[in-house]
Amino acid sequence: MTDIVTFGETMLRLSPPRGDRLERAREFDVQAGGAESNVAVAASNLGCETTWLSKLPDSSLGRRVTSELESYGIDAAVAWDERPESRVGTYYLEYGGSPRGTNVVYDRADAAITTATAEELPTDAIADAEVFYTSGITPALSETAAETTKTLLHHAQANGTETAFDLNYRTKLWSPAEAAAGYRELFPYVDVLVAPISDVRTCLDLDGDAVEVANHLASTYDFDTVVVTRGDSGSLALHDGEVAEQGVFEADTFDAIGTGDAFVGGFLAQRVAGADLKDCLAYGAATASLKRTIGGDVALVTREEVERVVTDEGDAISR
């Protein structure tokens, strides 16, 4: 039985050397990156059997994505799109420090994933899994992707598979109002909600502290578990009236991309293992902190490294 199945888009990430601008770059580092595959890789590195579902063009670039992801130990179960016009989404990451900041340029319109239907995907894997995960990025890609996301979440619940969903709001994909409507379409099929506090305030127009937000979301939408992430202020989880909180762990940041996905991967890996809320949050926070020290989208960490961070409570910051 697979522990965790995820569904979503994975793109090719192209990055010029640090310090170079996109307009003068002569070379790019190429890696695969996507929220749901990032979660699958993080959980796999912590001992879970994970499968990533998606749709890709039947081309060298599509195979480039699956070969890289499979090298990390996950199962890439994709529908192959044979249309000549099918494409892989890409994004360009230009690193920059203060005051310029890092810039991301997306080129993902009309990617194969935007046409993915539930009928094309191996849904038996979802029915046999412990957890099915996707994020708010996926339904924002197209009407078809939104319908497929809803169908897969419903299929998971109907087969007794726990469902997990991260709001993961992206301003370049849809407006706050569009995101709110899209989220509410999916909420009836979600058991575990991961809600960045900034996304909650931007899209769901909720005020209050993390405890108030978690309680409001749980009571309004009948989630089993709500996890509220608060950036440098750590995270909080609510389940059956129990609240657990976790600070962040200090890290020298080399590459922050994928930090939130690493947190979710660590959290879900411990949840599948039957750990309590506090332990799940701790593993999420530790996996996220380690990810910040690693280049690329994915958290190439070991369980031993995560456990060492968790054990060293002196590095925990409660804010």
UniProtKB/TrEMBL annotation:
Q: What keywords were assigned to this record?
A: Kinase, Transferase
Which top-rank group of organisms is this from? Archaea
Outline the extent of the Carbohydrate kinase PfkB domain. 1-295
Entry-linked InterPro entries = Carb_kinase_PfkB-like, KDG_KDGal_kin_Halo, PfkB_dom, Ribokinase-like
GO MF term list = kinase activity
Q: Which family does it belong to?
A: Belongs to the carbohydrate kinase PfkB family.
Against PANTHER family, the record matches this protein to: 2-DEHYDRO-3-DEOXYGLUCONOKINASE_2-DEHYDRO-3-DEOXYGALACTONOKINASE, SUGAR KINASE
Please give the name of this protein: 2-keto-3-deoxygluconate kinase
